[in-house]
């Protein structure tokens, strides 16, 4: 089942319980986070496909527009989360003020950035390690004739890295070429709350997302730990406004122990196995926020 399928099912389940669209979206997103230990980054385009109102909700908060820089080589993009929490933002972004950054995420071997426009369109910019699919272009397209489908375009950026841009916005090929030319090396900036956290011995960062008013991250003993379902040795942490926090559990959850801590207007939630409950509590208590 894809994240789009999961989001649709979750939204349907929440609509009857929460008539308010923002409550329904928050609850649906939280269910996916708790169940799959994934971030809102995985469902931003899905939300965009479901309607303008949902994108408008995800577009809440003031995303900081990064300063313009030339759209030069993207060879400096790193797809490894690293050990620091929060990690440095990836050195890639769409430098077009008409598209608002909703969330960025890093995991082993890929980076994702999601944008919204006019509260109804979504765009995903992904950087992945390795060789692109056979249908990908050999380089970033520079003419409309190179783009057969404006909804999705892939190209090989370097021998060991490729790009994938998808959008829900109808546009002409020439318009997309112009937009792709605005992909540059300025790191994205989001007004997210997490300032620092003390990573427990034996754990390392394997996934991190940053969005207005929220952060999600996963710590595991190794970078290649199972993600579906999540390895029971991992720790999954969510920082969000208290109004969107949740305490629900799910059958056969590999991380059944749910703890939370209030810090001002925010709630820090952490999921772990019973064996890691104490380490999870220490991790939770080490979290500091920017406000």
From TrEMBL:
Q: According to the entry, what is the taxonomic lineage of the organism?
A: Bacteria, Bacillati, Actinomycetota, Actinomycetes, Pseudonocardiales
Report residue spans for region: Disordered: 65-90
What is the organism of origin for this protein?
Amycolatopsis iheyensis
Identify the domain of life.
Bacteria
Q: Where is the composition biased (Low complexity)?
A: 80-90
Which spans are transmembrane here? 40-58
Could you confirm whether the keyword Transmembrane appears in this record?
Answer: yes
Keyword terms, alphabetized: Membrane, Transmembrane, Transmembrane helix
Its protein name is Uncharacterized protein
